[in-house]
Specification:
The complex is a heterodimer of chains A (about 100) and B (about 250).
Chain A: E1 2-4, E2 11-12, H1 15-29, E3 38-41, E4 47-48, H2 50-64, E5 68-71, H3 76-89, E6 94-96, H4 99-103
Parallel strand pairs in A: 1-3, 2-4, 3-5, 5-6
Chain B: H1 3-6, E1 14-16, H2 17-24, H3 28-36, E2 43-44, E3 50-53, H4 54-57, H5 65-75, E4 85-86, H6 89-107, H7 111-129, E5 139-144, E6 149-154, H8 158-164, H9 173-182, H10 196-205, E7 210-222, E8 233-248
Antiparallel strand pairs in B: 1-3, 2-3, 4-5, 5-6, 6-8, 7-8
Helix pairs in contact in B: 6-7, 7-10
The chains are: A alpha/beta (about 100), B alpha+beta (about 250).
């Protein structure tokens, strides 16, 4: 399953929004097969912040562990946010190269 | 008037003639002449020293984004333009998104770091102060891309009071500010927060922008690429009840 974050908003900023967006995605996650991964696609985002990320990505990682996969992006705020969340919670997100992104280069 | 201001003596939030000369970049001689001609009238301390209220300087600082926001943060006076005041989070987020689009055109890929940092600071104001504002709810939010400057200010309860709920032994604003920018504080149930200012600090340390951040009577001045330490925290002479952030970035990345 791939989640395109731009479908929530192109600027993902507050905890309030992150919390609400996480709740909104829960019904969709109930359809996830037991061996299926969740891929997070950051393509199309303008900016991304630790407050939103901590309310959305952190609970997903806690629930799904290595089945949560973050697709690579060149957006600086996404990469800075992921790095901070990993340090704060002493955890590591699984990353995957976004081939589509590389083809565009 | 807020409790914060009621507790202060008359000259607690005044500037001396030397400080005003420095801010306005004019000589003390000119200031004395302006006082005599009533162009800029000063108050007198008990010892006869010329002292200036922030409000008296308002008309002389219209081009200075930092001081405009500081006057609002310290006095709650009317902003220069009504549009600079974001009464609620929705207004702030809409304005920050509009700023982000303009920034992207101006400075390229760094834009997302600047706007997400401004977003963290602005959202912090709402996350920490809803129902607890010192007097005026909301955020002052101003920017000038020609100068590469962004100012965000609130008249909330400030970091010391926010942290005192979980760290009751904190003794002053300097200590609270240091903790807010460095320590990962866990177990702050029912509230989850505390990453925003660490994110902002990292972005300064990585060289994306300079930051001045004030709460109460303490401020951090951190230049791009500088590693933060307690030496970056200073006491200020003009105290504010809430928080004030001033971001300066290069416009030619």
């Amino acid at each position: 399953m791939k989640i395109h974050l731009k479908k929530f908003n192109t600027s993902l900023s507050s905890r309030e929004a992150g919390k609400s967006d996480y709740k909104d995605i829960l019904p969709l996650l109930n359809t996830l097969k037991s061996d299926e991964n969740i891929e997070i696609d950051f393509e199309g985002l303008s900016s991304f912040s630790p407050s939103w990320g901590d309310e959305f990505l952190t609970p997903l990682l806690n629930k799904y562990g290595n089945r949560l996969v973050l697709l690579s992006t060149k957006n600086l705020s996404v990469n800075a946010t992921i790095e901070l969340l990993e340090d704060i919670h002493s955890l590591k997100f699984k990353r995957k190269n976004n081939f589509l992104l590389n083809l565009k280069l | 008037m807020s409790n914060f201001l009621k507790k202060m003596s008359k000259f607690d939030n005044f500037l001396t003639i030397d400080e005003v000369a420095d801010i306005l970049k004019i000589s003390t001689k000119t200031l004395r002449r302006w006082d005599e001609s009533h162009k800029l009238l000063a108050d007198r301390s008990n010892g006869g020293r010329l002292m200036y209220s922030l409000n008296s300087l308002k008309n002389f600082l219209t081009d200075d984004l930092f001081w405009r926001s500081k006057i609002w943060a310290a006095t709650g006076s009317e902003p220069a333009k009504e549009t600079l005041y974001c009464q609620n989070r929705a207004i702030f987020e809409a304005r920050n998104a509009a700023m982000e689009k303009l920034l992207q055109k101006r400075i390229g890929e760094i834009y997302s770091i600047i706007s997400s940092s401004a977003g963290e600071i602005g959202n912090n104001s709402f996350d920490h102060n809803l129902g607890k504002w010192s007097d005026i709810p909301g955020l002052y939010f101003d920017y000038d891309f020609t100068k590469g400057q962004i100012a965000l200010a609130d008249r909330g309860q400030g970091i010391l009071k926010t942290l005192e709920y979980i760290l009751p032994n904190l003794s002053n604003h300097k200590e609270a500010l240091y903790i807010a920018f460095t320590e990962i504080i866990t177990g702050r149930a029912p509230e989850k927060r505390g990453n925003g200012l660490k994110y902002v600090r990292r972005n300064v340390e990585k060289g994306y922008f300079d930051l001045t951040f004030q709460t109460g009577d303490a401020k951090i001045v951190l230049k791009a690429n500088e590693i933060f330490s307690d030496k970056n925290i200073q006491k200020t002479n003009i105290a504010i009840p809430g928080c004030l952030a001033f971001i300066e970035f290069k416009t030619n990345f």
